[in-house]
C-alpha cells in the first residue's frame, strides 16, 4: 500500500464526483451531519445502526454486509471514496471495515468533511438514488482484526499502540473530552502499550501528515517495526485512523486494529491494567 | 455512546457540576456568533484533546479536567483561540473570537 492507493485529495474528489464506478460515502460520528449537507452524490452509512449488529456487540456478519452494500447501490467493481467528520475517525473505521470484508478498491478523502467545508467546497442535501446491486463480500480478513485474547498475549511481546489522549491513557479520563464520562469499568491502559495519540498523525485541517513525519512519530515513540503491532483506543474508531497511517500509508505489514478496545479491555475481569503515563517504569 | 452530542448552551440532563469540569462557550466574529466552526480543545502542552463542530449559534462544550486548556476554532471566517484555566469541578464559560 502507499499514499496514492489509499488517499485522494479534495481537489481530486471535486474533479471526480461523477466518475464512473466511483461511489462517495459519508460516515460520521454525528450521524445527522449528512442530512444537513454532503458531498454531491455521496451516500450515507450509519456506523452505529448499519455497521454494528443491533443485538450482539459485534459487526454485521458477511451476509449483513452484502445486504447493506447492495441496498446502498455499491457494487463489487466500484471504487469507494470514504469521508466523514471528526478528522475521518469513522470514515477510517469504515475503510478498515471494508478491507475486513475484502473490498480492496476503497480510499479515504484526505481531510474529510472538515477540509471540504473549510475550503468552502460544494455541499448538497439531495439524496442520490442508486440502483440496488448484488454485492458479494469475502470472509473477514482477521489478519487486520485483533481480539481480546490475542491482545492479552501481546503484552510485552508485540507493539501495543494506545492512540487515545494522554489523559485517557493515564486513567484520568474514560472518554474523549467532548463526551460525557462513561463506559469502561476501569481507567488506564494495557501494560507495555505506547501512547501515540491518533491526533499526532493528523494536521489541523484533518489531512494526514507526510510519510516522513509519520515514520518519525512512531519511531520516536519507540515502535519496533520488526514486531507485529496492535492499535486500540476506546471503541476502535480512532485506532482505525492510526491503523490506516501505519498499515496503509507507511506500509507496515502486520498491523491489527483491536475494535473491542478500552470499553472491552477495561471491563475484563482479571487482566492487568497500568495507570500513569507509562514512562516511569 | 459516541454519537456527537448536540452542542447547546444548555447542559445535558445529568451533568454533575460538583464532579465534572465543563467548558462552554461561543465562537464569535465581530461580536456575532459563528456557526459550524471546528472547535479544538488542546491541553497544557498544546496537544490535541478533542474537537467538536459548534452549533448554528456558535456554541460548544467540552468535558475537561483541572488544568490549563486552549480552545481553538477554525472557520471559514478565520481562526482564533483562547486559554482557559480550570481549577476544579464546575462550569467554565469562555469565548473564541475568529478573524
TrEMBL record, chain A:
Entry GO MF terms: thiosulfate-cyanide sulfurtransferase activity
Reactions it catalyzes: thiosulfate + hydrogen cyanide = thiocyanate + sulfite + 2 H(+)
Domain of life: Bacteria
SUPFAM superfamilies noted in UniProt: Rhodanese/Cell cycle control phosphatase
Annotated keywords: Repeat, Transferase
CDD domains: TST_Repeat_1, TST_Repeat_2
Annotated ranges, domain Rhodanese: 18-125, 154-274
PANTHER family (UniProt xref): THIOSULFATE SULFURTRANSFERASE
Descriptive protein name: Sulfurtransferase
Organism for this UniProt entry: Actinomycetospora succinea
UniProtKB/TrEMBL annotation, chain B:
Any one of the GO BP annotations: carbohydrate metabolic process
InterPro entries: DUF1416, Ig-like_fold
UniProt-listed Gene3D superfamilies: Immunoglobulins
Name by which UniProt lists this protein: Uncharacterized protein DUF1416
Organism: Actinomycetospora succinea
Amino acid at each position: 500500500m502507499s499514499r496514492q492507493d489509499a488517499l485522494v485529495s479534495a481537489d481530486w474528489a471535486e474533479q471526480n464526483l461523477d466518475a464512473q464506478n466511483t461511489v462517495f460515502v459519508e460516515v460520521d460520528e454525528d450521524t445527522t451531519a449528512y442530512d444537513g449537507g454532503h458531498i454531491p452524490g455521496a451516500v450515507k452509512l450509519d456506523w452505529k445502526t448499519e455497521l454494528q449488529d443491533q443485538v450482539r456487540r459485534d459487526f454485521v456478519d458477511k451476509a449483513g454486509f452484502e445486504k447493506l452494500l447492495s441496498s446502498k447501490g455499491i457494487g463489487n467493481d466500484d471504487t469507494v471514496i470514504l469521508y466523514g467528520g471528526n478528522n475521518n475517525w469513522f470514515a477510517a473505521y469504515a475503510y478498515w471495515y471494508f478491507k475486513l470484508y475484502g473490498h480492496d478498491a476503497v480510499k479515504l478523502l484526505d481531510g474529510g468533511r472538515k477540509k471540504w467545508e473549510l475550503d468552502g467546497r460544494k455541499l448538497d442535501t439531495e439524496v442520490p438514488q442508486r440502483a440496488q446491486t448484488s454485492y458479494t463480500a469475502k470472509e473477514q480478513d482477521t489478519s487486520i482484526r485483533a481480539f481480546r485474547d490475542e491482545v492479552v498475549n501481546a503484552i510485552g511481546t508485540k507493539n501495543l499502540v494506545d492512540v487515545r489522549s494522554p489523559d485517557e491513557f493515564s486513567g484520568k479520563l474514560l472518554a474523549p473530552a467532548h463526551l460525557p464520562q462513561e463506559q469502561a469499568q476501569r481507567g488506564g491502559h494495557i501494560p507495555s502499550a505506547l501512547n501515540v495519540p491518533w491526533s499526532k498523525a493528523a494536521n489541523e485541517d484533518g489531512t494526514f501528515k507526510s510519510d516522513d513525519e509519520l515514520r518519525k512519530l512512531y519511531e520516536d515513540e519507540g515502535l519496533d517495526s520488526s514486531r507485529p503491532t496492535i492499535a486500540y483506543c476506546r471503541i476502535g474508531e480512532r485506532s482505525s485512523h492510526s491503523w490506516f497511517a501505519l498499515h496503509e500509508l507507511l506500509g507496515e505489514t502486520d498491523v491489527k486494529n483491536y475494535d473491542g478496545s478500552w470499553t472491552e479491555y477495561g471491563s475484563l475481569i482479571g487482566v492487568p491494567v497500568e495507570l500513569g503515563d507509562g514512562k516511569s517504569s | 455512546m459516541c454519537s456527537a452530542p448536540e452542542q447547546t448552551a444548555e447542559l445535558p440532563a445529568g451533568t454533575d457540576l460538583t464532579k465534572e469540569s465543563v467548558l462552554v462557550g461561543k465562537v464569535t466574529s465581530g461580536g456575532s456568533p459563528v456557526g459550524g466552526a471546528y472547535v479544538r480543545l488542546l491541553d497544557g502542552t498544546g496537544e490535541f484533546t478533542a474537537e467538536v463542530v459548534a452549533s448554528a449559534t456558535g456554541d460548544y462544550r467540552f468535558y475537561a479536567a483541572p488544568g490549563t486548556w486552549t480552545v481553538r476554532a477554525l472557520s471559514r471566517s478565520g481562526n482564533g483561540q483562547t486559554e482557559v484555566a480550570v481549577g476544579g469541578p464546575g462550569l467554565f464559560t469562555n469565548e473564541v473570537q475568529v478573524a
